[in-house]
Write a structure and sequence with these properties.
single chain, alpha+beta, Alpha-Beta Plaits, 37% strand, globular
Length: 194
């Protein structure tokens, strides 16, 4: 599993219904994308769920590098680039994935928490803690799924979870879920990824 996200900042007075409409029209394009586990079309709106910004920020869990590369270099990613400019694309190597207690429910919100991997801790212990946290989040009422991944260049851990209600039992940045494409969700490897 490989995680990926880009964030497109939008002006404070931006009409976020433009993003909702865009996803409504175009979101289905990846519903059958080869190599994609899950794409959550995410948005933060200034003043909602404590967000200080307006932002479009889809989050991906990929089953294959080929699927991800075809998306990035094969055309679909060019649409957001043409409309908003080329964003930085963050990538993390998968640590753990779990289906949630509400796995069959539609996702309403997502929570993303990024944290630095401390220098003073053994990596094996820190990563095992991340795996346990992934399982703990997935077991919570309303959890649709939970994942953890790490960027070993920046030494940053990301926890990502989807929830079927507006009061998630996770801390971090909260996003509205506009659509979920999940053609390869069933193939995402469960549990620890090493």
């Amino acid at each position: 599993m490989h995680a990926m996200q880009y964030e497109i900042p939008l002006p404070a007075d931006y009409d976020m219904d433009i993003i909702r409409d865009r996803v409504s029209r175009l979101g289905h394009a990846l519903d059958d994308w080869d190599g994609l586990g899950i794409k959550a079309y995410l948005m933060r709106e200034r003043g909602v769920h404590g967000s200080p910004v307006n932002q479009y920020a889809p989050f991906y869990l990929w089953n294959t590098m080929e699927g991800m590369n075809t998306f990035l270099w094969g055309g679909p990613f060019q649409g957001p680039v043409n409309d908003f400019g080329r964003p930085d694309v963050r990538q993390w190597t998968g640590l753990a994935y779990e289906e949630g207690a509400a796995a069959g429910s539609p996702a309403v919100v997502a929570v993303r928490r990024r944290q630095r991997v401390p220098e003073a801790v053994p990596l094996s212990e820190f990563m095992e803690d991340a795996v346990r946290e992934t399982g703990r989040l997935a077991s919570q009422e309303g959890a649709v799924l939970s994942a953890a991944a790490v960027d070993s260049h920046r030494w940053e851990l990301v926890h990502f979870s989807l929830w079927d209600h507006h009061t998630p039992k996770a801390s971090g940045d909260v996003f509205e879920v506009l659509h979920v494409s999940a053609p390869g969700r069933h193939a995402l490897p469960r549990g620890r990824q090493w």
